[in-house]
Amino acid sequence: MNRRSTTAIALTVAGSDSGGGAGIQADLKTFHALGVFGTSAITCITAQNPDRVSAVQALAPRLVAEQMDRIFEAFPIGAAKTGMLYDAAIIKAVAHGFARRKFRKLVVDPVMVAGSGTRLLKSDAITALSTRLFPHAAVVTPNLAEAEVLSQRPVHTFEEMRAVARSLAEEFGVPFLVKGGHLRDRKQAVDVLFDGKHFHEYRAPRVPNIKSHGTGCTFSAAIAANLALGHSLAESIARAKRFVTSAIRRARKMGNYSALAI
């Protein structure tokens, strides 16, 4: 059998992280680790490390769109994910690229703020993200802070996570996976999916004393990779959860932070 004809292929549309722990770099590492060939369309160049982002240069939306065109022209993309999109013009170009292909195996990671606190999505772009891109998603994966922005309500407890996952899924008409990694009062890291009909919970023991970077990017990339491999959404999330938990548990010390073992 020709292995090259059966390899699953995934696409990441996201920003470049010069520190290598998040963004395009983390996505491509994750695809490779899961046996999926990775392609990319870069939206922004950032000058950053795990502690700070000192500069962001967005690419022209037409160049982002053309990257996507060349990828879809040459590769049978099994699934895709989006990360840092930065502004409304890029979001509209990316959404149009998926819409005209009626592409639905899309994981939208609504990246808004870096771990260091720097905004990675302009405030006036949130409407474009929710109205233009969300309708094409197989799942949207906000963390607690992002879920609060999208829902305009506080999310501090597990019960509030469930409620906001359901309300966002019903509002936007697509499944929402709310990530609970920042619920620090819990011994487990719990994520909640509402798929429009049912809740699914994904639990893993919290790994203590790890200052990590790029877990959200890695998680969404792992979901996309598993979708490309043919797994269902619920199974793709379960596999991705195990992958990320293992990567955190085996993290390697790099300077003043821990690099995920992808």
Overview of this structure, please?
This protein has 262 residues and is α/β, with parallel strands linked by helices. The protein has one domain (3-259): UDP-N-acetylmuramoyl-L-alanine:D-glutamate ligase. It is built from eight helices and eleven strands. It has helices at residues 23-33, 61-74, 88-99, 126-133, 144-151, 158-172, 215-228, 233-249, and strands spanning 9-17, 37-49, 52-58, 79-82, 106-108, 139-140, 176-179, 188-194, 199-205, 252-254, 257-259. The strands form three sheets. A six-stranded mixed β-sheet has the order 3-2-1-4-5-6. Helix 2 (61-74) packs parallel to helix 3, helix 3 runs parallel beside helix 4 and helix 7 packs across helix 8 (233-249). The longest helix has 17 residues, at 233-249. The radius of gyration is 17 Å and the shape is globular.
Task: Give a quick set of tags describing it.
UDP-N-acetylmuramoyl-L-alanine:D-glutamate ligase, 6-stranded mixed beta sheet, 8 helices, alpha/beta, 3-stranded antiparallel beta sheet, globular, 24% strand, 38% helix
Task: Please summarize the sheet with the most strands.
Answer: 6 strands, mixed
Number of strands: 11
CATH homolog superfamily: Ribokinase
Q: What structural class do you assign from the helix and strand content? A: alpha/beta
CATH A-level architecture? 3-Layer(aba) Sandwich
Radius of gyration: 17 Å
User: What gross morphology would you assign?
Assistant: globular
Distance between the termini: 28 Å
- Average pLDDT: 92
Number of helices: 8
Number of domains: 1
Unreliable runs, pLDDT <50, ≥5 residues?
none
**How do the SSEs run, as a string of H and E?**
EHEEHEHEHEHHEEEHHEE
State the helicity in percent bands.
Answer: 25-40%
CATH domain class name: Alpha Beta
CATH topology: UDP-N-acetylmuramoyl-L-alanine:D-glutamate ligase
Q: Enumerate the strands of the largest sheet in spatial order, edge to edge or round the barrel.
A: 3-2-1-4-5-6
